[in-house]
Structures are given as C-alpha cells and as structure tokens.
Amino acid sequence: MTISEKHINVLIVGAGPSGLMMAAQLLRNGVQPVIIDDKQGPTTHSNALAVQARSLEIYRQMGIVDGVLTNGNPVKGASFYIDGKEKAAFDLTGIGQGQTPYPYVLMYQQYKNERTLLDYLTLNCCPVYWNTSLLDIKQNEQNAAVQLKNYEQFLSLTCDWVVGADGAHSSVRKGLQISFKGDTYQHEFYLADVELDDAELSPDQLKLFMGKHGVAGFFPMPEEKNYRIVGNLPGEPGQNADLTIADVLPYLNRITGFLIDVARNDWFTIYRLHHRMAERFREQRCFLIGDAAHIHSPVGGQGMNTGLQDAYNLAWKLAGVINKQLKPAILDSYAEERMPVAKTLLNTTDRIFSLVMSRNWFTGLFRKWILPRVLNFVWTKENTRGTFFKTISQTGITYRESKISLHISNAVKVKAGDRLPYLKVFDEKKQQQTDLHEWCSKPGFTLIILGKLTEADLFSLARWITQNYPAVLNFFYLPPSAKNQEVFDTFEIKENQAKSLIVRPDMYIGFINDKVDMVLMDNYLMNLIGIIAS
C-alpha cells in the first residue's frame, strides 16, 4: 500500500503507542492523518508492560477501555526482597480507590496497546503505511517537505504538520538537528518473557529481588503463569551479546534464592538503558512525542504512558488549529506543559535507578538495612499511599503554571491546570449515577456549572454557547443536592454560590471561577485558548 497524496495535513512518523494514540486522537477530533512506520508490521514483542490509570481514563473516553481491562491483569501487591528474604510488602489493592475508575496498575503489554489502537484506526478508516521510512525533512513557516521510501518506491510530499513518534533513534529529531541530551547507564540488562511454574511467585504480585549478585524483577503478565523477568547482567557491557536464558538462570537463582523453572521462553533480549531528553519538543511545523522526545529507565512503568499523554496533550490542540477552531498560538503550550513533566520524570527515575543499581558500599548498607524499614513505615501512612498512587498513575500531573490555565477562585484543593477529579454524580432528572469524566466523553471543551441558577440564567448560558461556541463547548449543569455533596465539597463551593469550570478536551481544568461570568469565560476562551468565534 502506497501513499497517493502529494500534500497532507499531518504526517505521523512512527506507529508505536505514542504515534498510534496521536493518530487516534486526531481522528476523534475530525482530522485524518497519515501514519508511517519503517517496520514490516505490528510487533509481537513488548518493551512496556504497565498501563497506568491515566492511560485507562483516556481509553475510557475513547470508548475502548473494556477490551483493555478484559485482557489485562491488575497488580494487587508488590514485595521487596534482599538476599532472597522478603523485607517489605505493599498491598496495592484499591490503592487509588475514589481517585479514578481504575485504582490499580494494569499489566497489559505494549503490543496489546498497539493492537487496541490499530483496531480503533481501522474502524475509522486510517491505515498505517508499514515499511515506509523518512529519509529527509525540510521545513519553512508554511509547511514541511519530506522524502519517504515506501518499499522500493521513493516519494516526495509536503505536510502542514509532522509529528515525530519514531522512538529513541528518531529520524525526525535527527533531521531537525535537535540535540538529545543525556547519557547511557553503564549496566547491561536482560529481559525475558517466560512461562514459569514456581510456587514462590504469584499471578498478581510484583516481586523485586536485590542482593550482592544484582537485581531482578518479576512482573506477572495477563496470561496464566506468564512473567516478565528483568535484571542486570554481570560483566562489562558488550560481553553478553550471545547469552541465552539458560546462561542467565544460574545467576538469577542466586539473586532470588530459589530455582527458576522455565517451562517456555517466548522472548529474550539484552539491552542498555538511557536517560535523555530532546532540547526542544517543537521546531516550526514539527513536534516530538514519546521516546523521540524523552527516554528514561523503566522504573515505575512510566515510559509508554508518558508518550500516550504527550499525544493526548498535543492532538486536540493541533486538530483545533487544522479545523480552524483554534489560533496557532495554542500549539506553543504543548512543549510548555509537557517538557517540565518529562524533565521531572527523568530526574525522578534516574535517582531511583541509581539508588537500586549503585555499587557504593554505603548505598548497599542503606538498601539492605534502612530502606526496607523506611518503606514499611511510610506505607502505613494513608497520605503516603495516596501520593504514591497519584505519582505512579500519572493522575497527579498538573499544568497549573500553564499560560492556558486561569484560576479565578479562592479554592485551594482543586485549581485550574489540575486533572478533572473523578467524582460520581447522581443525575436527579434521569435518576441514574454518572461521573464528571463521563460528562467529558465528547470531543471539545466542557463547561460545568456547579450551584443554583435560575431558569433565566440557564437560558442566557445556552444562548451564549449557541451563538458563540456551538461546535466546541459542551454544557452540563449540576444544582445542589444531598446526593452530590461530595462534588460541592471537593470544589469548595459555599452555600448559595455557583462556580464555573471549563474543562479542556484532555480532561484538564483550564478555567475555574467562583461565579458564573460569561465575560470572563469569553476572555478565557477567546484570548487564552484562542478559540476562533463561529
């Protein structure tokens, strides 16, 4: 299959999770992209394994979460071992209860995420052009000119926009000459997807083993008795190229303190880890997302999920510009919002990884004698568990400092720039329960009014939306009631007060005001967001 167009709106380079999510979100917002990848077809192996709650919330908004949940495996606990003895254990059951519909970490391999997104693209008539490479890219203020190789055919076309989602060795990033600053960790690692028959392991428990021989992690996969094993290799980098799972087993047995019984080995690979970040996430008409923009150690299962959120953040903005609903200035907010997230993630994972892998004698003593006690103690604190979940689930990421966040409120619990809290809502008219996230299931912005309004006020609001924002603003109204008191308490709404929220298409609150003022909402939508009035 070859590309027949000579000019396209959006070219997405890379059909991994980030690129596929970018394409899916553009389709959801009415833009048909072209997506290419130099691979022969979808992969059957997975570097990433964990899907966090924030990604599941995105899948829910897209209407595809049920299949993901059915074929995934929630992790219910984690254990920390030193020299084969359990030193700390953490119950993860319902750790994020009330914060999200998905209060857990779901094991759902990267290739399954890709197949889920590919199915979504197929249903929306958006093919992936496999075996297609980007050879060259040049751009100006109007468009980008690219040279592609599709099988043995060479193609030249122009694009209004290009999104580089082509991984750590991104041809887009290299073509734009954007530096990828960072370093490579000195250690060499192995990854094995295996079927095991060991009584010491559990199908819903993550286990991390540490000792003088190294580290090894066991991650339960959705398939029965299937695990991913990740660990470091002895010796200097470059000396382990020809190793197999059989060569690693004696080393692994020493670390865990028991014999590993491998019934089947599906995949074994050796690799090194990097921590790098692109100097810029945008260059004129081109953007970088996912591993093309940032790579780091797999601590906490954040990599794939961060790439999905990159795409989620950029897509609605780019679609709005293409559809002539938003002014181009909105695109500057992508890098402004996502670069700090990537930088914080790199710093955090680097510190944790260095602590785990350090060969310093003092750090070794700290890991063995002090760290387990600290972990066991802090895990007894409810606030600590809540903060941990918000961090690992990525539900705690905030854009409060963003130029497109406007907080005109005395409230301190929830502010503009925060992810919209997951709060259940009882619909008095329909006599059924829903939630705030469900209210934001349609593309576009969502105006939510909380508090008592008169019929005349509601009519004025409806007319204001119809006249000015009919294609971009959805509207929901929640009057006070005993069954919805938690919503009003969360947003710190006083008696006889009405509060207005404008939620962005990515379910982040862009605007909060302690009253309902159409002039201020106009100012936010027109001047900060840059909506082009109908």
Characterise this structure.
By secondary structure, the protein is α/β, with parallel strands linked by helices. Among the domains are: 7-73 and 103-180 and 277-359, FAD/NAD(P)-binding domain, CATH 3.50.50; 406-529, Glutaredoxin, CATH 3.40.30.120. The chain has 14 helices and 26 strands. It has helices at residues 17-28, 53-62, 65-70, 110-123, 171-175, 245-256, 303-322, 332-357, 361-378, 382-393, 436-439, 455-468, 485-490, 518-529; strands at 7-13, 34-36, 50-51, 73-75, 77-82, 85-91, 105-107, 128-129, 132-139, 144-150, 153-164, 180-196, 205-211, 214-220, 226-232, 262-278, 282-283, 286-288, 294-295, 406-408, 424-427, 432-435, 445-450, 473-478, 499-503, 509-513. It is globular, with a radius of gyration of 25 Å. The model has no long low-confidence stretch (mean pLDDT 91).
Brief overview:
With 534 residues, this protein is α/β, with parallel strands linked by helices. It has helices at 17-28, 53-62, 65-70, 110-123, 171-175, 245-256, 303-322, 332-357, 361-378, 382-393, 436-439, 455-468, 485-490, 518-529, and strands at residues 7-13, 34-36, 50-51, 73-75, 77-82, 85-91, 105-107, 128-129, 132-139, 144-150, 153-164, 180-196, 205-211, 214-220, 226-232, 262-278, 282-283, 286-288, 294-295, 406-408, 424-427, 432-435, 445-450, 473-478, 499-503, 509-513.
Low-confidence stretches: none
The CATH homologous superfamily of the domain at 7-73 and 103-180 and 277-359 is named FAD/NAD(P)-binding domain
Indicate the CATH class of the domain at 7-73 and 103-180 and 277-359: Alpha Beta
Integer average pLDDT: 91
N-to-C span: 39 Å
Largest sheet: 8 strands, mixed
Compute the CA-based radius of gyration.
Answer: 25 Å
Individual helix count:
14
Helix content: 25-40%
Question: CATH topology of the domain at 7-73 and 103-180 and 277-359, which one?
Answer: FAD/NAD(P)-binding domain
Number of beta strands: 26
What percentage of amino acids are in beta strands? 25-35%
